[in-house]
Amino acid sequence: xxxxxxxxxxxxxxxxxxxxxxxxxxxxxxxxxxxxxxxxxxxxxxxxxxxxxxxxxxxxxxxxxxxxxxxxxxxxxxxxxxxxxxxxxxxxxxxxxxxxxxxxxxxxxxxxxxxxxxxxxxxxxxxxxxxxxxxxxxxxxxxxxxxxxxxxxxxxxxxxxxxxxxxxxxxxxxxxxxxxxxxxxxxxxxxxxxxxxxxxxxxxxxxxxxxxxxxxxxxxxxxxxxxxxxxxxxxxxxxxxxxxxxxxxxxxxxxxxxxxxxxxxxxxxxxxxxxxxxxxxxxxxxxxxxxxxxxxxxxxxxxxxxxxxxxxxxxxxxxxxxxxxxxxxxxxxxxxxxxxxxxxxxxxxxxxxxxxxxxxxxxxxxxxxxxxx
Amino acid sequence: xxxxxxxxxxxxxxxxxxxxxxxxxxxxxxxxxxxxxxxxxxxxxxxxxxxxxxxxxxxxxxxxxxxxxxxxxxxxxxxxxxxxxxxxxxxxxxxxxxxxxxxxxxxxxxxxxxxxxxxxxxxxxxxxxxxxxxxxxxxxxxxxxxxxxxxxxxxxxxxxxxxxxxxxxxxxxxxxxxxxxxxxxxxxxxxxxxxxxxxxxxxxxxxxxxxxxxxxxxxxxxxxxxxxxxxxxxxxxxxxxxxxxxxxxxxxxxxxxxxxxxxxxxxxxxxxxxxxxxxxxxxxxxxxxxxxxxxxxxxxxxxxxxxxx
Lengths: 373, 309
Hints:
heterodimer, A: mainly alpha, two-stranded antiparallel ribbon, two-stranded antiparallel sheet, 16 helices, B: two-stranded antiparallel sheet, 4 strands, 73% helix
């Protein structure tokens, strides 16, 4: 912890004050959201945290190791279905949380390695399309494994999944702590917050570890990395497995939080969304990834206010806000990328790489991250 | 045997459409090394525009011959899509030509979201049906049927592909395109106007997409604002299968994917003893893709590239 603080500033006391301020802000955030914006926003915060977890995982695969993965949501689906199958009336199994969550992460990691193994030789866009196909295969299987043996309950999905219970406290019920009533969305918020902080910590430590540096080396130049003695096969597999484990964990949380899973939640668009989050925020940079995830979760929700806004401006609703919402979302995506091609908060290393001027730099940049030929 | 023949015919028809769309992906990729994710949406816009024009002509009660109506619809679709392709490249890709590789991917996704939602605002969420003006003849070949529209689709796409190959291999424009694909900077030094070549590539690809879109909506008799997504995905798969960046590969990949899908859908039930039904069709396509890429990482006709120059 001390190292982390020192990273921000040399002034230890100021750092602790800043830490405490952020901590308090995060703790009261749901209350502020409910007071300022309404009850539904606490739930949106929960989802934002889930997406941060997902984005942090994908950041390992795409941001650190430079492996473009378009089937990432498949691992999320695996985590969610592991939880749903082992902890719902569907099979009559009700395994406890500390069994199903890690199990989901481990199984997802296994599938991550499984996907990684045959695709190690592929580069760039070929890898993208194979991972995309893999994600779709998982979704199609989830959709169709209801006959002849009903495993996943097909398109109807699985409902009445057990809510998450931590240390005997059922998070789906309202609790009173120190005179304050906490409804379930609040409890989930704090659980997700703790896990998010944990994974942020893991991400930061990974980034600076031997493995993290190996990932970056592979991203920059695989041949050179191999020449430096990095076992590229194992390190790449590890990136896949690690990213998948993050996704499996968040999938399990999603299932417990939502109480319902169906294959439709895990389509390609979701994978693309998570990818957009990390690219938009700034690949390889944890703060950027978090920012991207927050923006892309909150923006579509905020755009729901377009209806009332139109009434305010024009006196009536000119265009259905639900129709306009995604349109504006798309425009925002394009605009942000046009003005900040490296993302909102590019990682320091990448920012350096993106300094224009000079053919040498440009050539280096062209040979970067791509694996073109 | 007749099931086999029937599925083969259906597969070839489907494959021709895939191939047309795949050509658009592969041409853009060959020149810019960019996955134009918005390409499927361009196909959708082509279908929608054609339907709107054809519907309007039919509704106005003008007694035009069917062929002329179709040509009007097709022309409108081609014009709109060509303009669209040109605009997309200008707005979303040109400013990012020297940006990190994933940046244009995200703008492509943004553009495709925009196009989808614009189409939804303009044409609504429901399926739009093709007016019943086509008289479809059925022919019998060895126990399988083939319709006139299927024949037309296969012939038209074959003609377009031959035309495209001639354009790429025999004309000045084509040579400029090939040069740009090999090395953009050197081609520029040799006097090729890179910007206009790239614009031209997008326009060409979009025209092919428009034709494919019209074919799809005439074949299935309907169009939908979301149809571009899956079609684009399949076509991209086809392009990668054949070796992305390779024009012949896109055609081969498209046809192969169409046939594999149809045959897979027709036989997967009996093969697995009823365990897997025809809704596993898509799994089949992706499985084949993964297998091919694992065995031949650069696609069927893709050049084997060295690790690094």
